[in-house]
UniProtKB/TrEMBL annotation:
GO terms for biological process: sodium-independent organic anion transport. The chain crosses the membrane at residues 122-143, 155-175. It is a multi-pass membrane protein. Residues 1-18 form the signal peptide. Residues 192-245 form the Kazal-like domain. Pfam families: Kazal_2, OATP. Its main location: membrane. The keyword DNA repair does not apply. It comes from Argiope bruennichi. This is Solute carrier organic anion transporter like protein. One of its GO terms (molecular function) is sodium-independent organic anion transmembrane transporter activity. The keyword Iron-sulfur does not apply.
Amino acid sequence: MMLSGTLFALRLLGPTLGFLLSSLCLNFYEDPFYDPGYGTKDPRWIGAWWLGFIILETRRNKITNRATEGHVESHETFEQEPNFDLPLFRRSSKVNGIVGYYVLLPKYMEMQFKQSASKASLYSGPAGLVGMQLGILFGGIAIRKFKPRPRVMTGGIVIAESFSFIALILCMLITCPVPEMTGTSSITQPDFNLQNDCNTDCLCTTKVYTPVCGPDGKSTYFSPCHAGCTGYNKTGKKEYFTDCKCVHNTTGHIITGDASKSYCGFECQWLITFVVVLSLGKLVSSTARVANALVTLRCVDPEDKSLALGALSGVFSLLGKELFITHNKS
């Protein structure tokens, strides 16, 4: 089982390297030969998402597919074996329930913790996947050393998955305060009015989000237009708008002043805690991966073990990941 644990861990090496490559590529602008005039933390930044595909395509090896004979009798045996079907249903249901969370995790971290797309990809990818690799290896070592009975293994699976569930709940509770947009009571309001007396005649649009920070250092405005700015200046790398008639000073009064071209300072110390809890949840949950495979293999005949693992992976992808993607497209 140490070999199985090593193989499962190596399967995660690809996604880990993929997230690292994504983090690297997103540091470059969509057009690497063009300087947009703003950095990776600006909401208008679009990283070179396409660059990774080109790099991987140049390294891809051609694989010759070989036809394989069907195993009709084996498939019929699987369909009549509840001890094989139930773990399959459980794993597919689990993936269908949480795959969306992991797929959108980089975007969640980018918005919740105000990280750049590159850093969000770095934190959400390798941080969690390394924990999963270690968990799989630890699980394989433990099974090889202690050789637990099937009932003990299934109990360990329940405990590991329960810990993962608790970790996900804790991650939902670890949040940063939502920065308020001046002119609204919450940045998450579905309907808000950013117009006031000082920018009524500016005909501002909300189609382009270009946040600026007022002179008080904490008031963020949707755009320079909504801040009532009429001038622009640049000193070195610092860009700011001038003659802004809707900005607030430190006492909360509306004045005419300057606004910097960025979010206001955002301090949140919960990012590391979030990553640690998420990684621990993945680590503990992954210790059950080898046990899951063992339980599945013990439900089929020795000659059908390879086919069982293949069928498990195929149905797992079809009913888990693909079902989630199809549901969200509809």
